[in-house]
Automatic annotation (TrEMBL):
Name the record gives this protein: Ferredoxin
UniProt organism field: Leptospira gomenensis
Length: 77
């Protein structure tokens, strides 16, 4: 389960986030390319945008479900 106290610092504030256990493997980017980006050093992925419509909400949920290390959470602030 993702830890909201260990967020990748670049995440935009809001419900969805990625924590520092991200590998990164790229799987989530295939599900939600409109919401996610690599950090400049490409060591992690983060939410640069929160979902703002039903399509993006589904994409964020799919990204969370597919993450092999459960680095994506939806209980952020
Ligand atoms: S699926 Fe998980 S481990 Fe892979 S890049 Fe996304 S957040 Fe990181």
């Amino acid at each position: 389960m993702a830890d909201k106290n260990d967020k990748v610092k670049q995440n935009v504030s809001g419900k969805y986030y990625i924590d520092n256990t991200c590998v990164p493997c790229n799987d989530c980017l295939e599900e939600a390319p409109m919401l996610l980006k690599y950090t400049d050093d490409e060591s992690k992925v983060y939410f640069h945008k929160q979902p703002s419509n039903p399509e993006e909400e589904i994409a964020a949920k799919k990204a969370m479900e597919i993450c092999p290390v459960e680095a994506i959470g939806n209980d952020g602030e």
